[in-house]
């Protein structure tokens, strides 16, 4: 099922200054240097468009539609408050953000950019099985501000390219450290909402659309807090399934039941999940504990 995104005007959802210190290869942030000047100029144009609130679009894109793929899956996570892991080296998102686009000019050039904005002004904590507000969120001026804008690696490209198949942001990595590795830096225990920016590239860079979906909101964490989120991640994420299958095949099996599902556990444990999948009750945005789930996996998606 697809859900049509609400296109917002250029003035909504302001974006702070873009971090241009990271590498620009593979769809990551821009870096200084002659090879990156054009992309840096593009980011500056996006920033000024968003802050100035200029009128978006022209008759060419009046019929533009952006729809969220896997909307029903996103809603399952939204219903119990989604969580996304952030690590020092960066962790990929699950569910993966994917959109389908129609109404672009097939012969015009566009760039697709992804930005993560605070969904509210609160810091959150998980208490007695639920998320509750726990004070004021860290502001962008407190040293751990906005993490930059992610440029899709296919950018820039023709409108025909973007419309021929779903646009996937499966390479986005979320981190909680300023490490210059091209990841998006987020504050742990803060809620975020991804925003998609479509920019027409040419002699005059023009912001075509600014789109977001409420069902993609999530709280950044260093370890999953809600066991129901853990169960959903394992159930629907093929990478997590493969990891569990490999672990189970190498260990003696004992039968356990959890949340109505029958699982195979591990000797000496009272839970069907490896330790790294379990929620951690002690949490802080600056110095949090995270157990690496896939130590042997180069690209982690959990």
TrEMBL record:
Pfam families: T-box. It is found in: Nucleus. Residues 68-245 form the T-box domain. Keywords: DNA-binding, Nucleus, Transcription, Transcription regulation. CDD domains: T-box_TBXT_TBX19-like. GO terms for biological process: cell fate specification; heart morphogenesis; mesoderm formation; positive regulation of DNA-templated transcription. Its main location: nucleus. Residues 1-31 are annotated as: Disordered. The keyword Cell inner membrane does not apply. This is T-box transcription factor 19. The lineage of its organism: Eukaryota, Metazoa, Chordata, Craniata, Vertebrata.
């Amino acid at each position: 099922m697809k859900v049509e995104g609400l296109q917002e005007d250029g003035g909504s959802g302001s974006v702070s200054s873009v971090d241009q210190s990271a590498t620009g290869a593979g769809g990551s942030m821009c870096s200084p240097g002659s090879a990156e000047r054009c992309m840096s100029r593009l980011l500056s144009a996006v920033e000024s468009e968003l802050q100035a609130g200029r009128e978006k679009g022209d008759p060419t894109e009046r019929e533009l539609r952006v729809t969220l793929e896997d909307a029903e899956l996103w809603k399952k996570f939204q219903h119990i408050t989604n969580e996304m892991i952030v690590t020092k080296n960066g962790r990929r998102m699950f569910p993966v953000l994917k959109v389908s686009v129609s109404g672009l000019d097939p012969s015009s050039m566009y760039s697709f950019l992804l930005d993560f904005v605070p969904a509210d002004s609160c810091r959150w904590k998980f208490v007695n099985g639920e998320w509750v507000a726990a004070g004021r969120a860290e502001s962008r001026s407190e040293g751990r501000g906005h993490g930059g804008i992610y440029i899709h690696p296919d950018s820039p490209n023709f409108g025909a390219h973007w419309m021929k198949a779903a646009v996937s942001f499966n390479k986005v990595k979320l981190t909680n450290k300023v490490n210059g590795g091209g990841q998006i830096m987020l504050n742990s225990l803060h809620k975020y909402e991804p925003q998609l920016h479509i920019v027409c590239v040419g002699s005059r860079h023009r912001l075509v659309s600014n789109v977001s979906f409420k069902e993609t909101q999530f709280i950044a964490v260093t370890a999953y807090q809600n066991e129901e989120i853990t169960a959903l991640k394992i159930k629907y994420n093929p990478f997590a399934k493969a990891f569990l299958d490999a672990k189970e095949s190498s260990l003696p099996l004992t039968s356990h039941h959890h949340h109505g599902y029958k699982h195979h556990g591990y000797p000496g444990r009272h839970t069907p999940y490896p330790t790294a999948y379990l929620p951690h009750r002690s949490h802080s945005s600056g110095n949090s504990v995270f157990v690496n789930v896939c130590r042997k996996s180069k690209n982690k998606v959990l």
